Structure formats: C-alpha cells, structure tokens
C-alpha cells in the first residue's frame, strides 16, 4: 500500500482513511475539517505505533506531507 497526496487535502485524507481502515482493521473517521481529522488521527496513529511519531506540524499541508513519509515508511518496509 502506498500513501500519496491527492489534489486536495480532503481527497488525500479520504483515500488514507480507506487504506488505514483496511490495513489496521480500525476506524479512521473523517471530520468536517482537515485539521480536526488530523487532530483525531494523531491520537489513533500514535497509539498504534506506540510513540509520538505523528504530530501536527503547523499547517495541514506540511502535516500531510510529513505523515505521508512516515506512513510509507511504516507500511512499505
């Protein structure tokens, strides 16, 4: 599974939710804003990897870019 960025942050998170729900047999819900989705997912992802690897990096664009790299590192070893 490969995590990539799509034309909008909302499209990116929609696809990532689908991938993460399948891979982790968990629920990665989408919230009304990209920022609220990232905030909630940060807790879920950090709990699943057992450390504070996922953080909010100031804005949604840079956060999604950084998380893309981390998710690909985790799921494509």
Explain what you see:
The protein has 77 residues and is mainly alpha-helical. The chain has helices at residues 9-24, 34-49, 60-75. The mean pLDDT is 94.
Which helices and strands, and how do they pair?
Blueprint: H1 9-24, H2 34-49, H3 60-75
Features:
mainly alpha, 3 helices, 77 residues, single chain
- The computed structural class is mainly alpha
Q: Biggest β-sheet: count, sense, barrel?
A: none
Number of helices: 3
Proportion of helical residues: 55-70%
Low-confidence stretches are none
Rg of Cα set: 11 Å
Q: Tell how many strands the DSSP assignment holds.
A: 0
Strand content: under 5%
- Overall geometry comes to globular
Question: What is the residue-averaged pLDDT?
Answer: 94
How far do the termini sit from each other?
A: 11 Å
Order of helices and strands: HHH
Q: What's a quick, concise take on this entry?
A:
This protein is mostly helical and 77 residues long.
């Amino acid at each position: 599974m490969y995590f990539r960025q799509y034309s909008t942050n909302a499209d990116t998170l929609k696809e990532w939710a689908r991938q993460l729900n399948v891979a982790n047999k968990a629920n990665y819900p989408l919230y009304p804003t990209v920022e609220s989705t990232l905030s909630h997912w940060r807790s879920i992802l950090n709990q699943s990897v057992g450390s504070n690897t996922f953080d909010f990096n100031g804005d949604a664009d840079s956060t999604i870019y950084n998380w893309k790299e981390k998710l690909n590192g985790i799921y494509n070893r």
